[in-house]
Structures are given as C-alpha cells and as structure tokens.
Design goal:
The complex is a heterotetramer, with one copy of chain A (496 residues), two copies of chain B (322 residues) and one copy of chain D (290 residues).
Chain A: E1 3-12, E2 15-25, E3 30-35, H1 41-48, E4 56-61, E5 64-65, H2 71-76, E6 79-82, H3 94-98, H4 113-126, H5 142-154, E7 160-164, H6 172-187, E8 191-195, H7 199-205, E9 208-213, E10 216-222, H8 228-236, E11 254-263, E12 267-275, E13 279-284, H9 290-297, E14 305-310, E15 313-315, H10 320-325, E16 328-331, H11 335-339, H12 346-350, E17 359-360, E18 363-364, H13 366-380, H14 396-409, E19 414-418, H15 426-441, E20 445-449, H16 453-458, E21 462-467, E22 470-476, H17 482-489
Helix pairs in contact in A: 4-5, 13-14
Chain B: H1 12-35, H2 42-67, H3 75-91, H4 96-121, H5 125-144, H6 152-155, H7 158-165, E1 167-168, E2 171-172, H8 173-191, H9 193-203, H10 205-210, H11 215-241, H12 252-262, H13 274-293, H14 298-315, H15 318-321
Antiparallel strand pairs in B: 1-2
Helix pairs in contact in B: 1-13, 2-8, 2-11, 2-12, 2-13, 3-4, 3-5, 3-11, 4-5, 4-11, 7-11, 8-9, 9-11, 12-13
Chain D: E1 3-4, E2 24-28, H1 34-50, E3 54-58, H2 63-75, E4 80-83, H3 92-101, E5 105-108, E6 119-122, H4 125-140, E7 145-150, H5 156-169, E8 174-180, H6 185-198, E9 204-207, H7 210-220, E10 226-231, H8 234-242, E11 247-251, H9 253-268, E12 276-278, E13 281-285, H10 286-289
Parallel strand pairs in D: 2-3, 2-4, 4-5, 5-6, 6-12, 7-8, 7-9, 9-10, 10-11
Antiparallel strand pairs in D: 11-13
Helix pairs in contact in D: 1-9, 2-3, 4-5, 6-7
Classes of the chains: A alpha/beta (496), B mainly alpha (322), D alpha/beta (290).
The complex binds adenosine-5'-triphosphate (2 copies) and magnesium ion (2 copies).
Residues 12, 15, 17, 35, 37-43, 84, 393-398, 423, 425 of chain A line the site of one adenosine-5'-triphosphate.
Pfam families (chains B, C): BPD_transp_2 (PF02653)
GO molecular function (chains B, C): transmembrane transporter activity
Protein name (chains B, C): Ribose ABC transport system, permease protein
Amino acid sequence: MQIELKNISKAFGPNKVLRGVDFSIQSGEVHALMGENGAGKSTLMNILTGLLDFDGGNILVDGKETRFNNALDAEQHGVAFIHQEMNNFAEMSVVENMFLNREIKKSFGMLDMAEMRKQAKAALDRLGADIPVGVPVGSLSVGRQQMIEIAKSLMNKTQVLIMDEPTAALTENEIAKLFDIIRTLKKQGVAIIYISHRMEEIFQISDRVTVMRDGVSVNTYKTEDTDVKQIVHDMVGRDMGDFYPDRNPKFGESYLKVENLTSDGVFKDVNFEVRSGEVLAFSGLMGAGRTEIMRAIFGIDKFNSGKIFIKGKEVHISSPEHAIQHNIGFLTEDRKDEGLILDASLADNIDLPSIDGFAKHGFIDKKADKDFVDMLMKRLGVKAQSAKDAAASLSGGNQQKVVLAKWVGSGSQVLILDEPTRGVDVGAKREIYDLMNELTDRGTAIIMVSSDLDEVLGFSDNIAVVYEGKIQGEIATKDATQDKVMTLATGGKLDE
Amino acid sequence: MNNTETKKKFNMGEFYSKLGPLAALLILVIFVSIMNSSFLNVNNLMNLFQQVSVNALIAFGMQFVILTAGIDLSVGSILALSGAFAAQMILMGMPPLLAFLIGVVMGAIFGAFNGALIAYGKAAPFIVTLATMSVFRGATYVLTNGNPITGPKMNNSLSFQFLGQGYLFGIPFQVYIMIIFYVIAYLLLHKTTFGRKTYALGGNEKAAFVAGVNTKKLIILIYTIAGFLSAVGGMILTSQLASAQPDAGTGYEMDAIAAVVLGGTSLAGGKGKMFGTLVGALIIGVLNNGMNLLGISSFYQQIVKGIVILTAVLLDRKQSQN
Amino acid sequence: MNNTETKKKFNMGEFYSKLGPLAALLILVIFVSIMNSSFLNVNNLMNLFQQVSVNALIAFGMQFVILTAGIDLSVGSILALSGAFAAQMILMGMPPLLAFLIGVVMGAIFGAFNGALIAYGKAAPFIVTLATMSVFRGATYVLTNGNPITGPKMNNSLSFQFLGQGYLFGIPFQVYIMIIFYVIAYLLLHKTTFGRKTYALGGNEKAAFVAGVNTKKLIILIYTIAGFLSAVGGMILTSQLASAQPDAGTGYEMDAIAAVVLGGTSLAGGKGKMFGTLVGALIIGVLNNGMNLLGISSFYQQIVKGIVILTAVLLDRKQSQN
Amino acid sequence: GAASVGNNKSSSKVTKKAAKNVKIGVSLSTLSNPFFVNVKKGIDNEAKANGSKVETFDAQNDSSKQNNQISDLITKKVDVIIVNPVDSDAIVPSVKKANQAGIPVIACDRGSNGGKVVTTVASDNVKAGKMAAQFLADQVGSNAKVAELEGTPGADAAVQRGKGFDAAIKGNLDLVTKQSANFDRAKGLSTMQNILQAHSDIKGVFAQNDEMALGAAKAIKNQDIKIVSIDGTPDGLAAVKSGQIDGIVAQQPKTEGKLAVKAAYKYYQGKKVSKTTASPIHLVKSSDAK
Ligand SMILES: Nc1ncnc2c1ncn2[C@@H]1O[C@H](COP(=O)(O)OP(=O)(O)OP(=O)(O)O)[C@@H](O)[C@H]1O
Ligand SMILES: Nc1ncnc2c1ncn2[C@@H]1O[C@H](COP(=O)(O)OP(=O)(O)OP(=O)(O)O)[C@@H](O)[C@H]1O
Ligand SMILES: [Mg+2]
Ligand SMILES: [Mg+2]
C-alpha cells in the first residue's frame, strides 16, 4: 500500500496550521516525520485518518483519491493510528479498551469475552508486556497504557501504522522491544509513519525523514544521507549548537532532604538530598516508583513513614498547598490530567499557583498578573496567538511549555520536574535546559525525573536510580555511563 | 510492586460498590422485618415488588443515561403524557393493548426528541430535559384539560386492568414486566456492543469518537430507551389507577436517579452495573414500605430517606476518589 | 490568510454566549411590551424586579456552585428551613433583625454542611443535595408542624416587614438587597483569587489541587455562600408574606439553575459570568410576569417556558462544542 | 386460574369493636397544605379522646404513592382506613383492594368513584365555589370585572372549586383572567401583582384557597378590590377578621376529620352509617367580624 498526501492545507479559525504539505509512505518503509512543536504533524495524521476535515489538497491511496470518514473507516482500510495523546477509557478494563467498537460477537449480538481476552493477551505478549487484561486501564502507569495502545494497533491487519510519539512515556527496555516489532512489521511489508522528538531514535529506526516547519514540508531525506545537524537546521530554521548546554553548578546548602520515606507497597526507605543550584536526575525503569515518590513529597499522595526536611528543618506537607507554601513546585507527568485546565486560557493556567501573590485583600492586580504571564510566555517561547487562547488549542509540546511556565513562575526554591521535556521538540528542549541552568544559577534546586536516559546523562549533576521503589544507587553524572545507570535500574550493584 | 498488592488495602468504598448496595438492602430488610414482622408476609412482599416496579423500570432507562454522564429529568412527564395519550385512545374506543403499544412508542419518540436535542443541539442533558419536562407536562395538562382521564371503557376492560392490577401465579403482573425488562437491560448493557459503547461514551466522549463510535446515534438511542421505559411505567400506572392523572410521575426522576446512584453508578458516567440499579430501586422501595409499616410520621420520613441515601452514597464515595 | 477570516463565518453560538442572554432578554421585553403596554409601567417593572429578586439571589449562589461543576438542589429547602427558624424566633420574642441575622447564619451552616459532605465525603453534589433537600424539608415540616408560622409579632413589626415589603425612594427594598449581593458576587467571582480558584476547580479539579488550591475548603465555602444566599431569600420571602411557609421554595432550585444556564454558564463547570446569571434571572422573571400579563393559560405557560429555555440553551450550545 | 384481576370476597357482617380497639389508618392527599394538616388534627384529637391508635401518611399529592400507602395499611391490618383521595378515580383500585381485605374505608373531603366506602365525609367543593361566586357578586355588583387565582393545575380541589365558581358567575360577573398560583402564598402575591398590571380595573378576586388569597391581599394592599376564597385556615380567618380578605367560604377541616373518625366508631358499633356525611361549609365575612 502506498499513500500520498499532496498539498494538504488546514486552518483552525484564523490559524493556518498546514499550508501545503506533501508527504508519502510506501510499504515496508519507516518514514519519520519531524518538526517543532506545533508544526502540524499530529494535525496531518488526524487528517489522513479522517478525524479532521481539511481545507485543500489530495489524499491518494495506491494512486486513488480517498477520504476516510473516521478512524474506524481508516482502520478497516488498514490504516491504524497510535495517538500522541492517549485516548483510552480509564474505568474500563484493558481488554475492553483494546476491543472498543471492534468487539467480537457471538450469536444474537452477544459479546465473545473469552475470545477477546485471548486475542488481547496474545497481542500484549507479542510486545513482551506483562499486563493483566482484566484491570482498569486507569490503574496502570502511563508507560503501560502506551504499550496497550501499541498492542491494540497490532491486532488488526494493518498496512499503514502511524505512531505519534509512541516512546514519549517508554524507557529503554520497552523502546528496544518496540523497535524489534517495528523491524518485524517492516519485513512483513507494513508502512510505518514514525513521529518523535527523540533524535537518536530517528537514526536507529527510520528509512526516510521528512521535516515540517510552520505548516509546510521542508525537506525529505534518506536517513543514511543526512545527519542530526541537518535535520535540526531544517526544523528550527537555523543552526543549533549542542543539545545539552554545559552545567557549571555552584552547589549551595542542602535544600530538600528526604529520610526513609516509605509508602507501603509503593516505595521504601527513600533517602536523598538536593542542594540549591543542583540538578538531581531520577532515572529508572517504567513503573519503578519515581513519580509516586515525588507525589508523596508534594503532598498529593499519603506516605506511611519518613521525614522531609527543608533547609534542615523538618516539615509536614499534607497537601500541594503546603508544599507550595514551602516553595516547592511540581510539574506532573500527566499534563492533561493534572497539569492543565484545558478549557481555560493560557494566562489562567500559568498564573494559577502564583495567583495569591498578585492579590491584595483577595483582589487581583490585573496589570501585574498580565505582565507576569506575558513575561513567562515569552521566556518559554509558547507558540500561541494570544494568552487568552484555550490551553486545549495548543500542540502537545506547547502545552508542556505552558505547564513548565506555570511552575517556573511560581518562584519555587525546589522544582520537581516529572518528565519535563516529554513531547517537546529539540529547539524547545534546548530552551528548557537553558532555563533550568538559569534557575540553578539563581540557587533553585531541581529534581528532574526523566525516562530519557540521554537527557539524564546529558543534563544533570547527580543521578539517583530507582529500582522497585528503592533508590538503588546515586552517582555523579560526570562518572555515569549508560551501562552504569542501566545496571542500577535493573537492580544490579556497581562495584566500587 | 506486583499486582496482588492492591488487594492489601481494604477499601470500604470499593467494598460498597462491589457488594455494598446489596449489603445495604439486606441490612434494611433485616432491620425492618425485626421491627415489624408483617414485612416479610408474602402479601407485603408482593406489594413491595409492585410498588417498586414502576420506579425500577424508569431507573433501568435512567441507568443508561447516567452511564453516558447524562441525566433525564423528563421521565416523569413522559410517563404522564404517554399515559394520558393511551388513556385518551382507549376512551376513543381503541383496544387497550393497541393503545398501550402506541403509548410506549410515543414515549420512545419523546425520548428520542430529548436525545436529538442533546446530540445535535449539543446542550447539557440537565437543562434540555428540564425544559422538556416542563413542555411534556404542559402538553399533558393541555391534553387532559387538567382532569384525570377515566371512563367505563377503562374500568370494565379486563385486558386494560390486567397490566397494572392483574396477578399471574399469585404475583402481580407488573412484576413480570419489571423482570423481563431487567433481563433485557442487563443483557443490553453488559453483553452487547451497545453497552460497551455506552460505557465508552460516558468514560471519555472524545476517545469514543476517536474509536469511531457514532456518539450522536448512541445518545439518541439511549434517551429513546429512557423514554420508552418511562412510558411502560406510564401504562402500568394508568392501568393500576384505572385512570391517567395529569400530574402522574411528578418527582419520579428523583427516585429513579436515587435508585441508580444507590446502586453504585457514578453520576460522572462510565461506571456502574444494572444489577446495582435493581438493588437501588429495591432499597428505595423497602425504605418507603418499611417506613409506612413502622408508622414513621410523614415529616420524619423525608428526613430518614435523605439520611439513608446520604449514608449509602458516602459509603460509595470511592467512585469519585480516583 | 489573515485574522479577519474568522468574521466571515458568523457563529450564532458564540454570538449568543457573548451577547446572547442580553439579546434574548431584550427580544422578550420588546415582545411582551408590544403585546401588553402595561408591561413597561414603572409599577410593573418594580413588581418585576421584586419578583425576580429571590430567584436572583439564589442564582448568584448557584452560579458559584455550577462553576465548580457542582449543583445544589437543596436551596429551596434551605430557604424554607432558615425562614421557619427566623419566624419561630421572632414569635418567641426575638427582635426581627437579630432573627434574620441568625436565620442567614443558619442557612450558611446548612450550606457548609452540604459542602463538607461533598468535599470530605467525596460524593456527587447532585445526590448529596438531593438527600439534604429531603432532610431540610422534612426538618422544616417538623419545625412548623406543617402549618405556616405567623403571628401578630410579625404582622405588627415594621422592621420585620421592611425587608420584604418596604420601599426606599420608590423602589422595593429587596431590590437593593439583590443589587448589593450582585455587586458582591460579581467582585468575588471576577476580581478576586477566590473567583479564579472557583473557575480553576471547575475546569480541572486535579490540576487545581496540584496547583495548590485548597479544593476542600473552597468547595465548603462555595456551598456556604449558596446556603447563605438562599437563606437571605428565605428572610425576604418570610417578611414579604409575613409568615414562614413550610413548603416555601419548593422547586426554586430549578428556576435558579435555569437562570444560571440561561445566562450562559456551562453545567460542566469552569465557564460563565455573573452578569449572565443576573440576565438569566431577569429572563425568567419577564417570562413569568409577561405570561401573566398576556393571560396565557397555566397549562400553556409550562410549554412556553420550556420552549424558551430550550431555545436559549440551544443558541448557547457553543459551550459544549469543544 | 393462574391469572386474575382479583375478586371480591368482602364480608358483610361486622364484628363489633370498642372505640379504643379501633386501629385507624389514614392517608391524606397532602400535608403541605394547612387545610389537611387540620383534617389530621381533627382525626388525631377525636381518636385520642377515645383512646384509639392512628397512623397517618402523606401521599404528597401522588395517587400512586397513595395506592402504595393503602397497600401498606392493609398489610398492617388496621381496622379502618380513612382516605382523603388525591384523585377520586385513581383511588378506586385501592378502595377495592381494601374491600377485598375486608377493611372498611371512609372517604374524606373527596369521594371515591368506585369500590365500597362506608361513608364519604365531605364539604362540597363545587358548592363552595358557587357560594364564593355568590358572595363576590354581592360585593362587587353585576357585570363587574373579576379575576380568578387557580390552584395547582389538575389538582382536584382546583378543578372542583373552579367548576363551581365559573358556573355560578356566568352572565353575572365578567371574569377577565384566570391564572394559576399553585395554591401557594408567594406565587399568589406575584401572580396578583401581575394581574393587577394587566387589568387595573378589576373589582374582585376569587382565590381557590386561602393561601393564595393571603398572597393576593399583599399585592392588592388597600385598593378597593374584594377578595374571596375557600378553606378557612387559621391564617385565612384571621385575615378576614382584620379585613384583608373580605370573605371565606370556610370548610371545617377539623370537623371533617372528627366526623370521619366518628363514622368509623359508628361502623364498629354495628350501626348503620349513611352514605354521605356532610361537613358543613359556611361563609365568613369580614363585615360580620367587625
Ligand atoms: N483543535 C484545535 N483547535 C485549534 N488549534 C489547534 C487544534 N489542534 C491543533 N491546533 C493548532 O495546530 C497547530 C499544529 O498542532 P499539532 O498538534 O499538529 O502540532 P504537532 O506538530 O503535532 O506538535 P507536537 O510536536 O507538539 O505534538 C498548533 O499551532 C496547534 O495550536
Ligand atoms: N493511578 C495508579 N493507580 C494504581 N497504580 C498505579 C497508578 N499509577 C502508577 N501505578 C503503579 O505504581 C507503580 C509506580 O509507578 P510510577 O508511575 O510512579 O512509576 P515511574 O517510575 O514514575 O515510572 P513512569 O512514570 O515512567 O511510568 C507502578 O507499579 C505503576 O503501575
Ligand atoms: Mg503532535
Ligand atoms: Mg513517572
């Protein structure tokens, strides 16, 4: 099967998102689609699979003009789509999710539960994902949810598979498994459109790369004929230096210290300390419990025992409100669920944790508030028409920047950033690292939870590795290697 | 760190939402029967089931609606309007069975009208059905001119009276109807794709759309079911009272919603079981019947009812906890 | 290719939610005053404002509740119970002003009770307030024994009667009260952090919580406001009728909700303006007043009211569209 | 056969019972109306004086609820059921059910259109409407413009009282508007205010109950408009005394309740009870009070 998108254009209101994009894909090829946040990648794929209408251009499937009515229609024609934002039903079980609207029926329209369970298990086994099919999807970590989405798309006779940032929530192991699968599919003649902001993946897995910028396709290369520099240049429209800026940390006093923090069945005896001016990275496999530790510190979840100290004084944090009063900020990993008020404006999102600071006797100082929001939007380069836009109308990466802006602006002395660059393009990543540098220079302590090992090694001062709810080891970044971190992450010990 | 660990923490809420409604019902039954021995009389139990049946039927339909995170306030008015229609037609000489049939079809159409307004008008179910509740009720008054519809054609027709007053093997006929529709509703919700889509729509409308569910059609269908079942209730009531009352069913929406929620279904949509709703309707029935048997003054009945509902939903709070 | 393109597609929904409630009100006013010239009499307008004031007060409170994606069905019962309390105390010899003060504090406490159940019990506001509606109403009946509370102490006290029957510069005193509370509610919602947090809570409760909003405290506070304002309505009504009716306020929750929704506030929470609610309350007031003036039969009044509400919310559908 | 719509096995022989042994079950159409609260008082007082037990239920104006309550009273094996039907037709199946169980039924304030009742204690609502019309006509003179405040649409009292009034004023008074105020005082006030705007020249108002009349009086204030209503609640009678309301066709709810209980005792004394027991109605005029 061969698909050609020709001169596709699309506007959301006044916002011309796509302005004549060309893109094509053939059987047995992995075609990477790159571009800054908001370049229009997801929109293009939504158009291809019939989820969005478009204003102009043609879609040719095997040379024939085609328009899919909806996702189901596309799927029945062999085009499957793993979405960037997960579209699942938290309350429903894994198997119910996997077969939603594609249920297997017996006579009289009755569901064939046994058969569906069998097939769901088989699809998950293929990915080596050990996930019980009967539990509600919402009780699983984001990474596992993503594995389910992938497994789901593999159940059908797919000829074209679209993956929109499939690895954003995955760690090395899962990514390796995913790539094995992609290679197998390729051999079977499946065409794969692969969207990612992780540069190294593109060179590992793709055959061709198309780069989009500002709603047009700039260039298409054979992967072997190009390099990171070229692609980054096409994406951001200029040359960029190193991915990761240098760290020149000046550590101050211990800012946040955690002693023997334990939450039964989730994490145990967690000890660590982060100093002002330090970037402490938390690494680990999917579901190791990093997020849970941070949530407990921030007062979202309860814990059973242990102590938390700020500047050497013990504090009792029972809610995010307390945590914020103690100058802690927390960027949650799930931006849609806990990070953003999607229907509210960017301004209302950004100033929320700081709003009390702009009020006298409860009345808000509108001017100061506006200046604050404008400053942050500019500083983080949020790509939007105006601060009054609804958060929901931004691209994934730009939404991430908004959440970041919110916490950067809160003036926190300790910033906990859970997957801060998830779904963020290279250019914006660099800006975020620069910003983190600036913050640590001013004495902020940063805890960076990240599943991107490259990032952990490239931009931190110390690395704490979590394995099954314990801190397996902590190493200075300058001494760390990929192997060392992985050894710890899988429960091994480093011999001194 | 493995999957069995979740089971360690005993969760009262979870317990309630699994077994709770049934446990609450049992506690209530035991309490009432200790306080008044006539409660467990076969006769009284038959009364009880009969008293429960109309609310249960409406609640079955309401359950689908609530699972989509919707609500239908117009069920009581649909009950009255379709009942008045059927009664009018019987007075005009139509055979009762045919009139009943037309009556329930009318109810389904009123429901579909609600559904279409919600699906295509994209307005909140609460306000749409609040408005149609008023419209349908007004229409009932206009149709009946504010008077109950009755006449010898109704009083003397056996086939008319059987629906709401008849007995089969010593059990009120309307109880069979309730059971039959329970089974249908149960199968529909738990064993068919229709049910799956209902849950999906309530759980995450956008995701349901992405999965290719025809959400508009589904919404219309669901409100049609709610209207249909209310109208079945309307036919039973008309037959039972041998007259169609213009203000029949006033406030029934609240009892039906209470039954659904007592049964463990979340008003946020996406979660709940049909069995729970049956149990919820029984809880309300036992409560009403029991308070009458215990001779609780009607002023205090309202207080007791409110407290029982409150207690039950607070035990069931787990729902909104995650 | 430029920004003017939006203007090409005229969006009726957007138009309504911006200007619409006001436009709808104007159309209604023009229509009624053409049909009956006495509508625009100063006298009638004073009546109108007076008739609107209690519903408007309740609606202001309801607006906060609905912005958090909640609902308060117990407002009518709170109105009755706090009114009965105050009346009882006046009969027992307490000075009316003090009794009113205690009455509204009682109302606030009842509201806080709702809020606490919702915040700590984590149960759905709909079902919690459905239950407390029943509890508070029952308590009112118990307190009044089903009879209106009245007596010479009420009929002869000027300070008692002024609240609901007095005039100041030719304008009913209760209209001033409505305006004062409108201004307070407006400032609270649109100019303070309290208001911003209310919107945030309604937009995404989890995100608001993580951003440091004390969601429990906020919820309790909001239901307290709703209870307080209902009680203010209860004092006005008691003074106006010179008696506390046990069934006062029955069904008022629906009128208040309708006012809020007609004013363009989304039942899903997070979106809406206080001015809209004032306009919504006026729409309902003009509708009731106008239908009386035009002599529309009570049967048809319900139909007309339903259709007007329906039309207004369908124009406002834009809300749920994204 | 297996299927049935129930058949009568009512006994005609009455086992005599002393008053104190008569267990009385009551179902009233509503208790959120002072009139019926007073019926209840009448029943309670009379029963108390004779040492019998009473159990009272409020049907909240819902016929189906009332049916359930009567079923429950039958289960409880009360000796007599005093029912104040929400609706005279809808009560018939319940009355028949009680007949089958051999429990005597006494209808109160409204009759039952079927089944067997020992007696119907009632003050005639149609007649009350007529009396109100008569009085209003006397007050305002022939062909004067008047308005009517109706009760809850469809409610039995609203239908009957309206019927009597409307029939009696034909060709006598000019009824310019009828508006519902739901038997409610607050609604009576606002509706009357609105009516006065549209028809400033009316001379009289008929309110279908005292509550609405009390509200209307507040709207009318000291304009020269005559108000007449039906019921005779304490608040209403006080208003007649003070001249706010000009006349009330007073029914006597307490007497009604008392008569119903008396009929029950008579029945259990084995005496014959006549089919109808008239509860007196009479006109209370403010001109008499002064
Ligand atoms: N529903 C919508 N309404 C309005 N604007 C939208 C909508 N969806 C996307 N956009 C806008 O379209 C543009 C392209 O968004 P899209 O999601 O396609 O970007 P992307 O290339 O996938 O970015 P990312 O890498 O961040 O996922 C953005 O400017 C975004 O704000
Ligand atoms: N909402 C939830 N309900 C129940 N269990 C959960 C939930 N979220 C996560 N878990 C479980 O808690 C454990 C820790 O997950 P957590 O998300 O903290 O891991 P992590 O190290 O942050 O990894 P990642 O975020 O990369 O998935 C895992 O076993 C996971 O399955
Ligand atoms: Mg994207
Ligand atoms: Mg995590």
